[in-house]
Design brief:
With 331 residues, the chain is mostly helical. The chain has 13 helices and 4 strands. Helix 2 crosses helix 12. The two termini are 28 Å apart.
């Protein structure tokens, strides 16, 4: 009898652990589905094809940036300069577009984004400075550069018939918004990068076990530089798409995007402490916030409620991250 009771107790404990593990791994998807069902019950517009395409197009920029930010957070670093990079990239490409042509403007803008990433990577990876402090400084510097370059003015593409550039942000391919297609390709690229390559192993080790990186002979400084280049390039691409969508730019278009992207990534389960994360779940985090903000608009809630949600998500994610690590330790 005692043996049977012990077996039952052990079985119950194991089942509870399995349930906890299931909700830990699949809880985000379940929450997303519940959210969709609830909002669809209160709005006839919410699940229409038009609204879904609208949300997907709206979150495509944040989604592209979230892929880069996922790699950043997994590495144990943080980049708060991405919003200002979006602003500068958007203004720069609009200004250069009519002067030198579309593709030349795109290439130069991407190169400038690359430079910003190299600068961040140099200070954090080579000089071993704190990523939070460095990127806050870069945020201010890039904002200042944008203001000096633009003189605080609003800029538009004067020739509205330029459809090639507008297609990047406004076009459709097979009925799907082109920015969404770009977003999907970026997601696939980062999924392969972070699941099928040795680079992913090094990045996870960089955020979770730096000693392992050193013993493996990999240069930690160059690895750190690479993640800042990635986030800068994804932010630059986001700025290009934003400029194409609006055929215009102003100096603060990317303001606050860094927090929005970080909120989506940590909502997807990527640890702010480094060493764990998942690109696909980050994308789900982006979609959850995107549909949530869309629901706020449909229900007539004020815009500032989105900022409250962002901060709430970040604080809750940090708290759950700490609890989750304790739970893993207990297991």
């Amino acid at each position: 009898m005692r043996a049977n009771k012990s077996d039952v107790l052990l079985s119950t404990t194991l089942n509870k652990q399995k349930v906890k593990i299931f909700f830990t791994k699949q809880g985000l998807i379940i929450a997303f589905l519940i959210l969709i069902i609830i909002f669809s019950l209160f709005s006839d517009v919410f699940l229409t094809e038009r609204n879904i395409k609208l949300v997907l197009r709206q979150v495509s920029i944040q989604g592209i940036m979230a892929c880069g930010m996922t790699v950043m957070l997994i590495s144990g670093n943080l980049d708060l300069s991405v919003g200002s990079i979006v602003s500068f990239a958007a203004y720069l490409i609009v200004d250069l577009y009519e002067k030198i042509g579309m593709w030349q403007a795109v290439i130069i803008t991407l190169l400038v984004g690359l430079v910003f990433g190299c600068i961040n990577g140099f200070f954090v990876g080579i000089l071993n400075l704190n990523s939070l402090i460095v990127t806050i400084g870069m945020l201010s510097i890039i904002q200042a550069i944008t203001l000096l370059y633009s003189k605080g003015s609003y800029i538009i593409i004067k020739n509205p018939s330029e459809q090639a550039f507008a297609f990047l942000g406004r076009g459709f391919l097979g009925g799907i918004p082109f920015p969404v297609i770009v977003f999907l390709f970026i997601v696939i690229f980062f999924y392969i990068l972070m699941t099928k390559t040795k680079y992913a192993i090094y990045i996870y080790a960089l955020g979770g076990n730096k000693k392992a990186v050193k013993f493996s002979g990999i240069r930690e400084d160059l690895l750190t530089c690479s993640v800042f280049i990635i986030t800068s390039l994804t932010a630059t691409l986001g700025g290009i798409i934003f400029a194409s969508r609006n055929m215009a730019a102003q100096t603060a278009v990317g303001s606050g995007l860094e927090l929005e992207v970080i909120a989506a990534v940590v909502l997807g389960g990527t640890s702010l402490l480094g060493g764990s994360g998942n690109v696909i779940k980050s994308v789900i985090g982006v979609l959850i916030l995107g549909f949530l903000y869309n629901a706020f608009i449909l229900f007539g809630l004020p815009y500032y409620t989105t900022q409250i949600v962002q901060w709430g998500v970040i604080i809750a994610a940090v708290w759950l991250d700490i609890i989750g690590k304790r739970f893993e330790f207990e297991l």
